[in-house]
Automatic annotation (TrEMBL):
This is Methyltransferase type 11 domain-containing protein. Signal peptide: none annotated. Residues 63-157 form the Methyltransferase type domain. GO terms for molecular function: S-adenosylmethionine-dependent methyltransferase activity. It holds the Pfam family Methyltransf_11.
Length: 282
């Protein structure tokens, strides 16, 4: 992989990263990934459908940049949105398209670069990304592109998971140890270490920009009254299917705390939360 590609989205890493990852959509979440995705949906619904911010409640055009399996876009498509899903990875776009077909909803799937979006200015009511912008050494190019294609009065939303200490740091060490122990029981300790260490040294690039630096970049791109909060007090854990579902059930018990954390957690949420949310109106 060229160094320039590595620090500008790490495009070539994602086939390997997606191997074995949760890919299925569900309206009734039973896995930890599905629970995490539905919390994103709930937050984005609240923000976008807030008339004070979005200014409209009718059907809208949505673009998800770096969509992956497009879980969030699929939810909004089922609600009647005109959805476009963009990713650099053709293989994961095929997975996203298959999920849409399974749910009998339509969407448009585009292979494209976040730094050069193939859309005209002011095309979408909502432009969102989840776990994308931290993979760019200089995310300003992608952010400017996202804002460019957002309609005047439309909403920009970014879920960012930069390289820093958070609850996920502890989760990553747990995942390393769990992977090593699992494969050691199968007589393959070196494989367990190789897989586990990716939690500490991932295949993809992550920047270490502060939330203030992100906020300045987003404001400079033309987003007004940028709002910001920390999110997700629980780490993603690598678990066998049964344990994964048990973990998801435990998280659901603490859902009231999670909602409080994301909306009113303040400084605690900023530093303990796995990610940061930024949103505002163009």
């Amino acid at each position: 992989m060229k160094r320039s590609d590595f620090t500008r989205g790490s495009a070539e890493a994602w086939d390997e990263v997606w191997k074995g990852a949760e890919r299925l959509y569900s309206d009734a979440p039973i896995t930890q990934n599905q629970v995490f995705e539905h919390l994103k949906i709930a937050t984005l619904s609240r923000i976008f459908l807030d008339g004070r911010l979005a200014g409209r409640r009718e059907a809208f055009k949505m673009l998800e940049v770096g969509c992956g399996t497009a879980f969030v876009s699929l939810y909004f498509a089922k609600k009647g949105a005109d959805v476009v899903c963009l990713d650099t990875n053709e293989n994961i776009l095929k997975v996203a398209e298959a999920n849409f077909k399974k749910e009998n909803v339509r969407g448009r799937f585009v292979v494209g670069n976040a730094e050069k979006l193939p859309f005209t200015d002011n095309s979408f009511d909502l432009v969102a990304s989840f776990g994308l912008l931290e993979h760019f050494k200089d995310p300003s190019i992608a952010i400017n592109e996202m804002v460019r294609v957002t309609k005047n009065g439309g909403v920009f939303f970014a879920d960012i998971v930069p390289k820093r200490f958070s609850c996920q740091t502890l989760g990553n060490f747990f995942n390393l140890i769990a992977s090593f122990l699992f494969w050691t029981t199968k007589g393959l300790p070196s494989k367990g270490w190789q897989k586990g260490i990716r939690n500490i040294r991932p295949l993809y690039f992550e920047n270490s920009l502060s939330w203030r630096e992100y906020q300045k970049i987003i404001e400079a791109a033309g987003v007004k009254n940028v709002k910001f909060s920390g999110n997700r007090p629980f780490p993603r854990l690598t678990l066998p299917t049964k344990l994964d579902r048990i973990y998801a059930s435990i998280i659901k018990v603490f859902m009231p705390f999670w909602r409080w954390f994301d909306s009113k957690g303040g400084v605690f949420a900023v530093y303990w939360g796995a990610g940061w949310w930024f949103w505002g109106k163009k």
